[in-house]
Amino acid sequence: MFINLEQLPADPILGLIKQFGEDPREHKIDLGVGVYKDNQGLTPVMQAVQHAEQKLFADQTTKSYIGPLGVPQFNEAMKLLVLGQRHSVLNEQRIALVQTPGGCGALRVAAELIKRSHGAPTIWVSEPTWGNHTPLLGDSGLNIRSYPYYDFGKHRIQFDAMLSCLNQVPAGDFVLFHGSCHNPSGADLTREQWQQLVQLVQRRGFTPFIDLAYQGFGEGTEQDAYGFRLMAEQLPECVLAVSCSKNFGLYRERVGALAVTTETVASAQAVTTHIARVVRGIYSMPPSHGALIVAQILADPNLYKVWQEELSQMRQRLLHTRANLVEQLRQRGLGDRFDFLAREKGMFSFLGLKPEQVVALAEQFAIHMLGNSRISVCGLNGANIDYFAEALAAVSAR
Length: 398
Ligand SMILES: Cc1ncc(COP(=O)(O)O)c(C=O)c1O
Fold this sequence. Notes:
The protein is of the alpha/beta class. It folds into two domains: 11-45 and 304-396, Aspartate Aminotransferase, domain 1 (Alpha-Beta Complex); 65-299, 3-Layer(aba) Sandwich (Aspartate Aminotransferase, domain 2), CATH 3.40.640.10. Helices cover 46% and strands 14% of the residues. The chain has helices at residues 12-22, 47-59, 72-83, 88-91, 102-118, 133-138, 159-166, 191-204, 226-234, 265-282, 289-299, 301-334, 340-343, 355-365, 385-396, and strands spanning 29-30, 95-100, 122-127, 143-148, 150-151, 156-157, 174-178, 207-212, 238-243, 256-261, 348-350, 367-368, 374-376. Helix 3 (72-83) crosses helix 11 (289-299). The radius of gyration is 21 Å and the shape is globular. The site of pyridoxal-5'-phosphate (PLP) has 12 residues, from helix 5. Pyridoxal-5'-phosphate binds at residues 34, 102-104, 130, 183, 211, 213, 243, 245, 251, 256.
């Protein structure tokens, strides 16, 4: 019967990887890349991870099963990382938190949990949102609708339009927010906007679902959790998908967590049993290696310090690259046209180019990005940023 399956069209990101790989020019630049790269264009294993991993290898005594909820010490440490030391939810133990295979695993398990408890409600995602949200949430049977978020012309959040759309969302639906470093726009909600959203949720009664895939990449691990902490504090229930892929550089180890904050302790316990049931039916249990590394780093004050310093360097590099690019473009006569790049956070931004300008950058300058001109800032470094600014100025003049 598989003979009946027809080949699917290529995924745009995979298509871009192929296009970049086939470009023979030595000075080519990859701005599609979805992982952090340092100024040498590398994605090295973090020092804190190396130390934790060595200790892990020396100390481990078994490879026995860990169970559907994952590594217990990881789960406890992650509660502190996402909520902070003194959050009311933590004191009152109104949280279910379960280790998952990456942030993707958390999103998918959350969707299955929502289906068990709410039937097939609608989940509202920002327009635009990360491309994988639709398959991860929609393939479980949730209905996906979108709310206005990013104004591509003005390069800022269209907050009024967002509010008026969310004002129509009924109780029982879910609304997905990006905790920090919005992917793909880099445009983040301000603290005031998060506060306004909390009031709106209180009026409407829907459930917020926060995707926190870049904690520490925006302003810091504490600051980037502001939206989630506020919502968890002020609202009866909140869903959180966390990824440790970027901030611990553990991409291929598949480390993440799904958390649900609840009204009561009993509800948190009940939710945990349902998550365990969902996990049993999909992948039985998550891998332990990466979670043990994260648990080790978060438990050891010296390793924690090393990790925070490395994370800070990554964050500073992103901020510096953004500011440097704006400056370079200003020097090439582009005025304030690209100033938004320095206001946006994290790895991604839209340049706002026309499709033919994107094609010209690829064909004439060997600079590769998605067709909608979304770039990954990490693709730029000291060796290529001048060349990129020159090329962008050239195609922008056309
Ligand atoms: C917005 C967002 N959510 C979730 C994830 C999930 O990441 P992972 O499954 O690799 O932990 C990513 C990764 O790129 C992301 O950008």
